């Protein structure tokens, strides 16, 4: 018995996961983390109304969710001033990125992104046989001009840019992004990942022009709305592109509970404003803690602060390991020169107190093991 | 601006949905259904412990779910007496079918299924460019011998069979399925969709032999466990095949709430037994109602009863339309000769009372419009 015959593409892929979850690390360590500050989760959580809506929906979970996600799509359309046919809801931005790549990328097709940008996007591109063409960041920012140039050179069908950026926390203003959209080469599509935009300064997101065929905007309830565990992302784009998702998506893939929670969360913009305030306070607190330890916090338009540890990648990896050994779950950028940094999510006072308590000894241990 | 360039495969696909949701019909009708008996949902719902676990998890939804689904996979492995590396959890059987087809089917690859079997499987095969080779049912049963023969003739990489079957409610005994597994041609994989098996008579499911590379078993929390809206399916197969899902799946795609709910539902086997009793009673009630109206209920190993309306497809479609017009949500098989039937899900007493009240007039109207 030879067993199943995989496609050549899938046979050649590694079994991989873009991110190791904190639970996996906890199982390996044999004990839980004291502070969960590595996955840019929003510890302030969703609106209490969303929690109540999800608890209520759990009692009705014998019913499939609406496969059209009608109510949520229409609420999102009204919120953003676009048509409901400009909105598709999916299983997180990760799920939508997978669908989008599948729609556009056949083996050998070119894709442009930045060296060190979101690995899950790269996972999907590799999974459909696309060829990634990467440009460096410009300092700590993704470089729109370099991405456009590389896309034009390679005939890329997709261009990925996150604004604000993960893992660096940096951002471009709306005018810069609007110029980038105008410069998208003929036949290319800009994937503008705005997962963190709900936590960014006003003026970060360009106006949404839903019928522009050059850009698709990706948004999520995982960050500002505090519902990472519910898996609700959405995309805004031209109606023909959005309709294309219906050719391939898992139509009944959205949880009824998640749909109800997202609808309630969207309706509670006062809670989002409160979260924005708490996240800003947490960013300031993280910056103060790391400055007090002689490190440099990078400016952030997200719910995390990327911290320059002042050495090379090897040193930052030691700092990360020492923090994890002290029960602080944090992550760091994967590639140089950004791997001089670690990345700490906005936490509650008690989370950041645990980080503050652990950092001096972690730094000391990292420095001693260097010598 | 030409907009994005789709792959040739996706460009050629229709925008389609395998099933229209009842919410879509309600919006079109302008009023809700009185009884929701069309989607084979389990109106008796999940264990109260599962509802409580989901409500609790909603309060922790700021955290991503464990991307390894560790606790649920291990509980399922223990429940079925297999290894945790024989189990993959995904966004419903629909989601897992999509991943499986992607792993095995490239454009032009052959797939064997039955004419009138699960359309969502066909949706995925078409979506990856596979070529469907269909065999007829034998009476009201899927035909294992014909499927095996057709698979051998066409070099099919996948063979689909549901046991029990949807939409006919029929089933094969374990020995028949075990013989089919032994007959799977070299290099083919049998997708044994056991979505309804928790509601079938003892002796329907063959013993699970997890390392057999010829079969993958698909199970779900949507039917017996009453959690259709949570989107939790799982597959049991050989470790290398199960590991293959990690090459392509949406690793963070499972809701934290759904994982918690499924874990609690699995632990409450007493509730499942109670549901089995209620479903059996409802099947008997449906059979009595339809017999009293001169129609023939088919034997069922599921939570629905397929009803022979005693005429042709056109007549059954009229009966269906007249029931829907009377606020009873039901569905029917798509293809002849099964489209002589309609399909009614096991409901509560009040749901079936509404069906009972509507059926005589629906039949009368269907007969009158024939003349």
UniProtKB/TrEMBL annotation, chains A, B:
Occurrences of domain Aminotransferase class I/classII large (ranges): 37-352
Key words, A-Z: Amino-acid biosynthesis, Aminotransferase, Histidine biosynthesis, Pyridoxal phosphate, Transferase
Catalysed reaction equations from the record: L-histidinol phosphate + 2-oxoglutarate = 3-(imidazol-4-yl)-2-oxopropyl phosphate + L-glutamate
Pathway info: Amino-acid biosynthesis; L-histidine biosynthesis; L-histidine from 5-phospho-alpha-D-ribose 1-diphosphate: step 7/9
InterPro entries assigned: Aminotrans_II_pyridoxalP_BS (IPR001917), Aminotransferase_I/II_large (IPR004839), HistidinolP_aminotransfase (IPR050106), PyrdxlP-dep_Trfase (IPR015424), PyrdxlP-dep_Trfase_major (IPR015421), PyrdxlP-dep_Trfase_small (IPR015422)
Top-level enzyme category: transferase
EC number: 2.6.1.9
A GO molecular-function descriptor: transaminase activity
Cofactors required: pyridoxal 5'-phosphate
One Pfam family matching this protein: Aminotran_1_2
Keyword Protein transport carried by entry: no
UniProt family annotation: Belongs to the class-II pyridoxal-phosphate-dependent aminotransferase family. Histidinol-phosphate aminotransferase subfamily.
Name the UniProt record assigns to this protein: histidinol-phosphate transaminase
Organism: Albidovulum sediminicola
